[in-house]
Write a structure and sequence with these properties.
Blueprint (H helix, E strand, L loop, with lengths): L1 H36 L8 E2 L2 E2 L3 E3 L5 E4 L5 E2 L3 H11 L9 H5 L1 H4 L16 E5 L3 H11 L4 E7 L5 E7 L10 H4 L12 H4 L9 H11 L7 E4 L2 E4 L2 E4 L5 E4 H6 L3 H11 L1 H10 L7 E2 L2 E2 L12 H8 L9 H12 L10 E6 L2 E5 L11 H17 L11 E11 L2 E10 L6 E8 L4 H22 L2
Parallel strand pairs: 3-6
Antiparallel strand pairs: 1-2, 3-4, 4-5, 6-15, 7-8, 7-19, 9-12, 10-11, 13-14, 15-16, 17-18, 18-19
Helix pairs in contact: 2-5, 5-15, 8-10, 8-11, 8-14, 10-12
The chain binds zinc ion.
Length: 458
Amino acid sequence: MKSIAKRTGFALILACVLLFGVLAFAIRYFLFADRWVSFTGNPHVYTNGKLNTGEILDRSGEVLYTSASDQTYSNSTSLRKATLHLIGDKAGNIPPRILRAYASKLFGYDKLNGTAAMETGGGELRLTISAQAQAVAMQAMNGRKGAVGVYNYRTGEILCAVSSPSFDPLDPPNLEKDNRDGRYDGVYIYRFFHASYTPGSIFKLTTLAAALDAVPGLADESFTCTGERIVNGEKITCPKAHGQLTLRDALAQSCNCTFAEIALRTGKSALKGQAEAERLTENIEIDGITTIRGHFDLSDASDNDLAWAGIGQYTDLVNPCQYMVYMGAIAGGGTAAEPCLVASARSGGRETYAARTEQTPRMLSESAARTLREFMRYNVTKMYSGVDIPGVEVCAKSGTAEVGSDYNTATFAGFIADSDYPLAFIVVVEEGGAGSSTCAPIAKTVLQACMNVLDGER
Ligand SMILES: [Zn+2]
């Protein structure tokens, strides 16, 4: 009897182990089967490492890439160049990140029927990107290195995410031979998502957001700029003495001396908290693309360093996409839609994915957002009237970041405050000189192209 009881107990334990194993497999299958089947070694899905089914379209239905039989790109050279970093190149130097992330939705895999839908003709992936706006942005960059981004801060759709330089994937450069002048330096990097830059004065929008909450009554104060300010025995300088300034004019004139004072009064912890609220030092995942994190570290900063950090220099680095989302949050009263690149996926005649709008965490207080929005509008009317677009309110800030003794990064960021055109933007040009003169005209051209896209969809 004893041994029967023993055996029964043993059998019960075995049954439990089996049941547990089956359950664990079922859960893992449910969670990860899409990923398992999208593994690039799966011969049902990939040929020579390339996805063997499906099309990528832009938001208007323009076919950018077909991977059904051979890898074919758009017929237009300018569209191929403008969308290279989104699609990937043939040699695999620029990986097809979006395609990989959505492979299972594209070839119609589902948990009951496996990859059966592939036989009915593959699928299509529709991006939120406008190929036309991309091409306009690429042309406006005119070979200069940098990034241009525009997104709808209400829906999250990225309309334009350009990285320059680029090349035609059907006629790739031989870098050894063709890059003697450096024109293709870093060409495989998707700068909009994977580069971080010294922001320069656009970062004053971060400092000001922190200061408006940390220093009560700041918005009503006035400041005096003599052209230089000594902090810790070292100089903070402005290009000229700005004289007596309201806070609004200090931002419009981009007065370093005033912002040095503001950064010192705001303090390390509030500034750090603001950079964290904007997620500047985090990686954000956007439809298969993970943004590079920026840098904002005041742990060893002297007062002079702290002042320069508040001006967007010191060791500050921001990623263009992340800062564009912050622009959206200012426009949106403190939060914005999370950015996305894929609108929908279809396979075998049915929709397998549709993007849903999600909100970012709060990046700044509602009252700080209101003040910044008003100040950024004043910036445009007072300083950058050339970028203004009739009928809408463009709000912006420029920056000229000093990276080396004769190397500047030009930046320009902002948004349109209009419910019909809820667009946030950023333009970064490496070795670009002044942000307002280099980047503002590019921003205007690309914004107008994006507004035309939205008009065409109404
Ligand atoms: Zn000044």
